[in-house]
Design brief:
Radius of gyration: 17 Å
Order of helices and strands: HHHHHHHHHHH
Largest sheet: none
Helix content: over 70%
């Protein structure tokens, strides 16, 4: 890469780190930039997974206050995310490029609808939940987290939007605390996928390093911004970013 191409990748990493912590979809910033500087699609996807792990970690650190008493929840859902992420990474090495192209925009649009109607759905779910029931949600949520992990390990764009929609519906919980869990689950998926790719695929270490440095800074900045957003504003940001993601995917 030239100097200007390296700067572009670094800046994309900062932007991706910020947007991933606040909402998700940072891959839609970094992935096109990697392609633009001449990195092949699969190598770009693999390198991107490596690069975004530090950003996810910095987001988890930034949201550590909201995660403090959610260890059991993160452990349960994190296990589902880990298994899903591993399977998704395996599928990336086995399936033809673009195998998920048709379904991804539909998934994101569905997630956006769920985010918008989340307050009403969450109330309905809470009203039907039996007293003394599982505070971490139903098995349906764990299955949804597992499936989202598969998608995240395979590509990952808007993984955060899907997780926010699922947990927002099925957990009776504050949206900022849900966002904190989302960051932890995304970190697990990115990390297990990156570890798998280390032994099975080619990594462009220069690109991965630049994205890692940028996403680390962006994640810390994103946590500062995201934690200050009220629930309504956070939903608006999720919907706007999600619509941009769908538009980019449909036009690409």
């Amino acid at each position: 890469m030239t100097l200007w191409e390296s700067i572009a990748v670094l800046v994309a990493g900062v932007g991706a780190g910020m947007i991933n912590v606040i909402v998700g979809s940072g891959t839609l910033i970094t992935f096109p930039v990697l392609l633009a500087v001449g990195i092949p699609p699969v190598t770009a996807n693999v390198s991107n997974s490596f690069g975004l792990v530090p950003g996810s970690l910095s987001g988890v650190i930034g949201y550590r206050r909201e995660l403090a008493d959610q260890g059991r929840r993160v452990l349960r859902m994190g296990t589902a995310s880990l298994l899903g992420g591993l399977l998704g990474a395996l599928l990336l090495t086995k399936l033809p490029s673009g195998a998920f192209d048709a379904i991804v925009p539909v998934l994101i649009l569905l997630a956006l609808v769920l985010v918008v109607i989340q307050p009403r759905v969450a109330k309905a779910v809470a009203a039907r939940r039996r007293p003394g029931g599982d505070p971490d949600g139903s098995p349906v949520l764990l299955v949804g987290v597992f499936l989202t992990g598969i998608y995240g390990g395979y590509f990952g764009a808007a993984q955060g939007v899907l997780l926010m929609a699922l947990m927002g519906m099925l957990l009776q919980e504050d949206l900022q605390r849900i966002n904190a869990v989302k960051n932890a689950l995304a970190m697990i998926v990115n990390a297990v996928a990156a570890l798998f790719f280390l032994f099975t695929s080619t990594v462009n270490w220069a690109a991965a390093g630049l994205i890692a440095a940028g996403s680390l800074v962006g994640g810390l900045l994103g946590a500062k911004v995201g934690r200050r957003l009220p629930p309504t504003a956070l939903r608006v940001v999720i919907v706007v970013v999600g619509l941009v993601a769908v538009t980019k995917l449909l036009l690409s």
